Amino acid sequence: MTARKPAGETSRVWQRMLSGRRLNLIDPSPLDIEIADIAHGLARVARWNGQTSGAHIFSVAQHTLLVEAVMREQSPRIDISWRLAALLHDAPEYVIGDMISPFKAVLGEDYKAVEKRLLSAIHIRFGLPAVLADRITQTIKAADKGAAYLEATELAGFAPEEAKRLFGRDPGLLPATREDYLTPWSAAKAEKRFLARFNALISGSNSE
Fold first, then answer.
1. How confident is the prediction for the chain on average, in pLDDT?
2. What is the spatial distance between Cα 180 and Cα 196, in angstroms, rounded to a whole number?
3. Among 5, 45, 109, 110, who pairs with 60 as Cys (CB 3.0-4.6 Å)?
4. Helices 60-74 and 80-87, interaxial angle, to 10°?
5. Is residue 1 part of a domain?
6. pTM of the predicted model as reported, rounded to 2 decimal places
């Protein structure tokens, strides 16, 4: 038997952030989104449910930096705004966590709807279109798959053949870049580097 809520009591749909903002997860306002909260949260969310090698988790913050690096390799002339969109492509996970793809499929459209509303609010907050053009979305997805291939083979124990079947080909990053982005960082380092890259892209700089 399900317990009844006392009269007048409603479910809480917001989360308090360290910045002091209260973000409504069902109807998020761009005004309640702060990049410091996003960086802090993503640096503490583990990719692959934590099933990766290394002294630290491989965080979503580090993953988004890897995706943006892969995009630079695959689409060197793409506008800097879309590089920012790539950096922010998993930003909703700072409040809803990182679900592996098979579990997202089980949760279905409700999860996707919450994720899309959060991402649209994040885009608006940082001067991007609420919904990206299909061409840009597909470009980011291609970079995301390239990053997933690298993470799967170098950190999560996948054989190259299996990773290729699931995620496509190796994106071919330069060895130094590959080593840097695939060595799991501490949460503090991931947060700092995510913020630094965000600030560079917002200011219009494409240098690392």
1. 91
2. 16
3. 45
4. 150
5. no
6. 0.89
